[in-house]
User: Which sequence fits this backbone?
């Protein structure tokens, strides 16, 4: 078929009300987008459709590439977004302008298999499902050449979704699905636009939706860079926490607690290690020696302070994290704030030691570890308030 004939068919399809609107959220996908558009047209030949490109003002000018395509292809709709960047928000914006009776979501990185779109569409058109998911986990699907590490991350994320959200689908992490307009309209008002996985938002908010899966083989990215990084992992954990616990509990606090638990474990291990190592007494020069237990205590506290700062800066408070030279004054501020918590930590530890709490039950060594944990737990709560008031949150308010 000639290019002119192909364009004429697309024009006629665009003039008719589309059966399917394909929404693709983009960020730095300038090389992939033309290929994606062509492949979608081929896969949906004979099915009236439109392609909605929701671009987050990509630095590589993906939006300009999309506009150039749209100039000669009226079935392509372009949204250049300047506010609220993020995958879920982009998809919801794209859906809000879509005209189709059914709505599909597909990534622009060419890793989803667009050839299964007709089968997915048929599943929802027939009434068999409200949502049809392109799945890598059911029989016939696959993850391609993923590394062991990435497979493990995906497995953990899927386990978390199934365990906490009680979802029964095999691939809740998929970003490739088709949904009916009625399911979209009934669910969209509840969706958190800052959520990470838009499919999770749909099936997590509306448990009444009927969901089915169609297998596909995940492809390798050819152009551009993967967007999987620690911020994505953080966003996913926030989304699952918010879906499971509601919006009454600050999900960032939950991340802070998770990081704090890691700090408590490291603190206890460092303390136990120092105790087993037998740190010597420290002479103050005032005819008074410091008990080795306090040397172990100070050692474990400093180790955990450093670790907690790194994890909180790079994980909990990702959007407000400090970089380059600003890390040094930020760490100094964190150290000062931590000294307040450490003072509380020491006071509780000393009190429990002096009162012999659980000493007769656990013995000297284990009791010391418990006393140390109790003090560290209270210090964790105090430090949350101080850090979110004077370090990261204050910085966010200034911006």
Assistant:
């Amino acid at each position: 078929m000639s290019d002119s004939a192909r364009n004429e068919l697309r024009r006629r399809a665009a003039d008719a009300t589309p059966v399917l609107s394909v929404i693709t959220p983009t960020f730095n996908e300038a090389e992939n987008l033309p290929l994606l558009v062509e492949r979608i047209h081929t896969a949906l030949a004979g099915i009236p459709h439109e392609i909605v490109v929701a671009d987050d003002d990509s630095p590589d000018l993906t939006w300009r590439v999309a506009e150039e395509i749209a100039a000669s292809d009226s079935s392509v709709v372009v949204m250049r977004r300047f506010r609220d960047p993020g995958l879920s928000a982009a998809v919801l914006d794209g859906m809000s302008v879509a005209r189709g009776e059914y709505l599909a979501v597909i990534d622009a990185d060419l890793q989803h298999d667009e050839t299964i779109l007709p089968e997915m569409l048929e599943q929802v058109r027939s009434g068999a499902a409200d949502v049809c998911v392109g799945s890598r986990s059911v029989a016939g699907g696959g993850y391609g050449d993923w590394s062991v590490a990435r497979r493990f991350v995906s497995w953990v994320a899927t386990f978390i979704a199934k365990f906490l959200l009680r979802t029964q689908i095999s691939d809740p992490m998929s970003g490739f699905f088709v949904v009916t307009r009625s399911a979209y309209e009934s669910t969209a008002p509840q969706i958190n636009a800052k959520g990470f996985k838009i499919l999770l938002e749909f099936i997590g908010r509306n448990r009444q939706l009927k969901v089915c899966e169609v297998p596909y083989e995940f492809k390798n990215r050819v152009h551009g860079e993967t967007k999987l990084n620690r911020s994505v992992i953080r966003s996913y954990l926030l989304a699952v926490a918010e879906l499971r616990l509601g919006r009454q509990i600050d999900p960032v606090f939950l991340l802070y607690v998770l990081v704090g638990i890691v700090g408590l474990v490291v603190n206890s291990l460092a303390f136990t290690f120092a105790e087993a190592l037998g740190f010597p007494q420290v002479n103050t020069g005032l005819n008074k020696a410091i008990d080795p237990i306090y040397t172990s205590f100070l050692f474990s506290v400093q180790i955990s302070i450093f670790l907690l700062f790194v994890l909180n800066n790079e994980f909990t408070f990702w959007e407000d994290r400090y970089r380059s030279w600003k890390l040094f004054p930020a760490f100094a501020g964190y150290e000062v704030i931590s000294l307040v918590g450490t003072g509380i930590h020491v006071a509780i530890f000393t009190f429990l030691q002096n009162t012999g709490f659980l000493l007769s039950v656990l013995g000297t060594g284990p009791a010391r570890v418990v006393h140390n944990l109790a003090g560290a737990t209270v210090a964790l709560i105090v430090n949350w308030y101080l850090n979110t008031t004077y370090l990261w949150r204050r910085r966010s308010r200034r911006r």
In short: The two ends are 55 Å apart (CA to CA). Residues 3-244 form a domain with the Spore Coat Polysaccharide Biosynthesis Protein SpsA; Chain A fold (CATH 3.90.550.10). Strands lie at 20-26, 49-55, 76-80, 102-105, 131-135, 177-180, 211-215, 282-283, 289-290. The longest helix spans residues 327-355.
